[in-house]
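Design request, tokens follow.
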């Protein structure tokens, strides 16, 4: 009988469900008795026909239907299996059911308990009311089969109108509150996720700023140490350079006098003296190199930079290192085409040689099976050229990396380094607006990375017409009258001996030199910068006022201690300045340039 009803009875579904307002609640009636469906319609939709007409009126005349209270849309099925299909369709269309009234007995298919269990599993928000006129199952049995849930209630037949209306109203309101709560929670979760993302991004930026500030502070502390050491080095260099010039000048005088000696000196004695002089020269050269290195990181070379192609500089340095280490160390070159950078070739060669030597020492001392050094050159999109030197040696400890650019810091034995190499490299590169860093390489070893800015607008320099002067013109000046000014008598004696081929007048004060130059003409004036009472700068300015043009013939001599005012003065004037200690060849070359430029005095 029930099977016949299921086939022949009409399914009571609202044919205008697409016209029902969004706030209408959908209820599914699952019962094998058509009369029960009628009862639910009479209880929950007493004016259903009127509501349908209102919905048609709204569709035709664009007016909202007039109604009061909660609206229900009822769908009917007669078996539990059909109910599952309806619930799935409703979920797929985005209009899920709020509530299902399910009969306990629905032969021949699923009973109400099985149907309720499947409905609860299919739609996790659906509310279910089990309807029964019998005591087929106790509440404990129902709970055991459906599990502990607050989504299931029991309604006893025959129905009470008020009970059905209250159940429908309360459960649909509960369903709506749950939906609103979940939507609100979803919005809150999205906001929390967005805020969390913003905070995470802010945290990343803050960490980056902290790291950047930490690096800047380290660079500032290093710069302050270098500045303080530079001032100390300049003073020490000045005190060292003068006696060094005494020694180097004395060695030159002894060599000259030994060659000119007419007396018969035993050959063994001559050889012993020459060996002693050679040893003195080597010692002077080593001290001079240390002083020059100190000057490099305390006050980098101030000569102008020029456009350079690092792809030409690097191979030459790598070849020099390769010749030194031989075939034992594999040297790989990966040099891309790069734009020109602004720098100083000699100083950059010094940087690359120092980094390559360190890499060579690292791989040799590490004793790796296949020692290797990789040299690469790449252009960067931010307007820089990057050079990297990577070795597979033992690497550098993390605590050492922070100190590698500090002057006089070294991990080598005392006889193998002064600790100035990397400090000089850092000073040279930063003076060219570049950066240099050392870090550990993957798999062991060290990466030395240097970045230099590219040349933006490169124009070929004009050829100086003066450079075309013939060697015959330069050699035409044989003997010149030279005034030498230095407060050190020993220095005057050394310079006078070095300039013995010229007519030399030597004085120990700038005041005396100023007086002599008023009465005699000189082709050239060698003048010490730092002298008591009247400095070389004072002598220059007074000479320019008293005898215009004389100041152009001055070549300055400096022991290396340059206060800011003196350095500003030298940057302003075109005169050459010789740094003590200098050898005889450097002195002669400077004098020749000055005499070629100005010619003999009238």
């Amino acid at each position: 009988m029930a099977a016949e009803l299921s086939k022949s009875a009409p399914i009571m579904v609202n044919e205008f469900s697409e016209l029902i307002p969004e706030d209408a609640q959908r209820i599914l009636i699952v019962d094998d008795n058509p009369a029960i469906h009628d009862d639910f319609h009479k209880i929950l939709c007493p004016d259903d026909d009127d509501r349908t007409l209102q919905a048609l009126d709204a569709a035709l005349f664009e007016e909202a239907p007039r109604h009061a209270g909660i609206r229900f849309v009822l769908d009917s099925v007669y078996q539990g299996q059909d109910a599952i299909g309806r619930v799935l369709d409703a979920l797929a269309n985005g209009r899920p059911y709020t509530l299902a009234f399910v009969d306990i007995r629905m032969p021949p298919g699923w009973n109400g308990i099985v149907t309720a269990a499947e409905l609860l599993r299919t739609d996790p928000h659906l509310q279910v009311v089990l309807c029964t006129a019998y005591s087929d199952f106790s509440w404990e049995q129902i709970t055991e089969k459906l599990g502990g849930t607050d989504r299931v209630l029991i309604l006893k037949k025959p129905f009470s109108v008020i009970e059905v209306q209250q159940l429908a109203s309360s459960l649909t309101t509960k369903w709506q509150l749950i939906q609103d709560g979940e939507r609100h929670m979803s919005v809150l979760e999205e906001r929390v996720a967005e805020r969390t993302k913003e905070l995470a991004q802010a945290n990343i930026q803050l960490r980056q700023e902290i790291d950047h500030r930490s690096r800047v502070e380290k660079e500032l502390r290093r710069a302050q140490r270098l500045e303080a050491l530079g001032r100390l080095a300049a003073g020490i260099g000045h005190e060292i350079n003068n006696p060094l010039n005494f020694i180097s000048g004395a060695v030159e005088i002894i060599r000259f006098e030994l060659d000119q000696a007419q007396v018969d000196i035993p050959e063994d004695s001559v050889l012993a003296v020459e060996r002693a002089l050679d040893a003195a020269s080597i010692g002077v050269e080593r001290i001079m190199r240390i002083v020059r290195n100190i000057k490099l990181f305390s006050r980098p070379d101030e000569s102008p930079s020029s456009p350079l192609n690092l792809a030409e500089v690097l191979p030459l340095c790598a070849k020099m290192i390769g010749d030194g280490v031989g075939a034992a160390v594999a040297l790989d070159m990966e040099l891309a085409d790069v734009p020109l950078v602004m720098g100083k070739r000699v100083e950059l060669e010094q940087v690359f040689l120092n980094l390559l030597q360190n890499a060579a020492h690292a791989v040799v001392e590490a004793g790796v099976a296949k020692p290797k050094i990789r040299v690469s050159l790449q252009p960067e999109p931010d307007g820089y050229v990057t050079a990297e030197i990577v070795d597979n040696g033992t690497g550098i400890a993390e605590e050492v990396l922070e100190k590698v650019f500090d002057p006089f810091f070294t991990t080598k034995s005392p006889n193998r380094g002064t600790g100035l190499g990397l400090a000089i490299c850092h000073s040279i590169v930063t003076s060219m607006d570049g950066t240099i860093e050392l870090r550990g390489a993957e798999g062991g070893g060290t990466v030395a990375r240097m970045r230099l800015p590219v040349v933006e607008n490169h124009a070929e320099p004009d050829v100086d017409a003066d450079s075309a002067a013939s060697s015959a013109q330069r050699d035409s000046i044989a003997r010149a009258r030279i005034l030498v000014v230095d407060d050190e008598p020993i220095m005057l004696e050394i310079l006078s001996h070095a300039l013995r081929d010229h007519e030399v007048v030597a004085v120990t004060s700038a005041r005396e030199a100023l007086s002599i130059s008023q009465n005699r003409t000189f082709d050239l004036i060698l003048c010490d910068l730092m002298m008591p009472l009247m400095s070389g700068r004072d002598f220059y300015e007074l000479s320019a006022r008293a005898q215009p043009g004389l100041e152009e013939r001055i070549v300055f001599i400096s022991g290396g201690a340059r206060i800011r005012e003196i350095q500003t003065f030298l940057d302003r004037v075109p005169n050459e300045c010789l740094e003590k200690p200098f050898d005889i060849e450097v002195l002669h070359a400077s004098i020749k340039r000055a005499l070629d430029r100005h010619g003999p005095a009238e």
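Comment from the thread starter after seeing the answer: thanks! The longest helix spans residues 161-260.
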